[in-house]
Amino acid sequence: MTEKLRFPAEWESQAAILIAWPHADTDWADRLDQVEETYIALVSAITRFQPVLICVADDDLETYAEMRLRSNRVDMERVRFVTAAYDDTWLRDSGPITLNKADGSHRLLDFRFTGWGGKFQASLDDQLVGALFDAGVFADGSEREVIDFALEGGAIDTDGAGTLLTTWQCLNERHPDASREELTTRLAGWLQQERVLWLDHGYLEGDDTDAHVDTLVRFASPTSIVYQACDDTGDSHHAELQAMGRELEALRTVDGAPYTLFPLPWAQPVIDDGRRLAASYANYLILNGAVLMPAYGDVADDAARDVLAQAYPEREIVQVPCRSLIWQNGSLHCITMQLPAGVVAI
């Protein structure tokens, strides 16, 4: 008999959020002071609602991070540190993808992490799930499955009811010799999905993930979708994101109904040294009882908050300053990974 597994949606009950503290040997070195302030704000926000598990490179970094958090009055009762080596801090893509078993235990899927198709050094990041497993982070009965296939957590989103959402650009870039049918079969099998919905449009300038879905489109429920829209006809993204919006309008739920769509407002261009940065409001993080949303110091921040409040009416919407994160072309969701209820050893 095949073991029954389920890929839970992000809005389901969580044990903790997993992050990695930035340090001088990560790519944050040139702007470490700025990004540390974002991490402090993030941990402060998370611990209002649930625990956070922080990877640190060594004991000195743990001591330093704890000092910074305590000095900012973070609830340290909800903070746990674990020592592990990592190249950088994008744990959405290097962290575990967790499936729930029928008996209450969990399977941690450990896909290959290649630094987004070999763009960056990732050998330590690719070993992170194994390091966390060996460190005893996960509850008794948890099992790790190593899968020799490049897949990042930011490339997929599930409704928790058997539907997976992803982008063709990203998966085709990682696996150019695989057909859509083949990739559909593989993803559905590994992730226990009934169907895979592919998007052929959508991108952000400055994004080096090859159009991760978590920068563009997110399930808010099995019948609703939040997405990054662009209403500025003079912006280079307008035509592509409009085409993505039409794709979403054509999608149907498992019951054959159109999805309820929540378009997010468009932030003004953020330019750094002549390079446009990928400022997306779709890169938000769902917690127990809250949604943490990236804020960029833009006039659209509050409008994005209002849209998310409509999409998640029973959750508090909390803004976290993330302008420093997009310097490395990612945002709030990209640096975090939720760990479902029961998977963390207490």
Question: CATH-wise, what's the superfamily?
Answer: L-arginine/glycine Amidinotransferase, Chain A
CATH classification, class level: Alpha Beta
Main sheet: strands, sense, barrel: 4 strands, mixed
| Percent range of helical residues | 10-25%
**Strand line-up across the major sheet:** 1-5-6-7
Q: What is the fold named in CATH at topology level?
A: L-arginine/glycine Amidinotransferase, Chain A
Q: Which structural class fits the helix and strand makeup?
A: alpha/beta
**What overall geometry do the principal axes of the alpha carbons give?**
globular
- Poorly predicted tracts of residues: none
- Give me the number of helical elements: 9
The total count of strands amounts to 19
Mean pLDDT: 96
The percent range for strand residues is 25-35%
How far from one another are the termini?
A: 32 Å
Keywords: Hydrolase
InterPro entries: Peptidyl-Arg-deiminase_porph
GO molecular function: agmatine deiminase activity; protein-arginine deiminase activity
Pfam families: PAD_porph
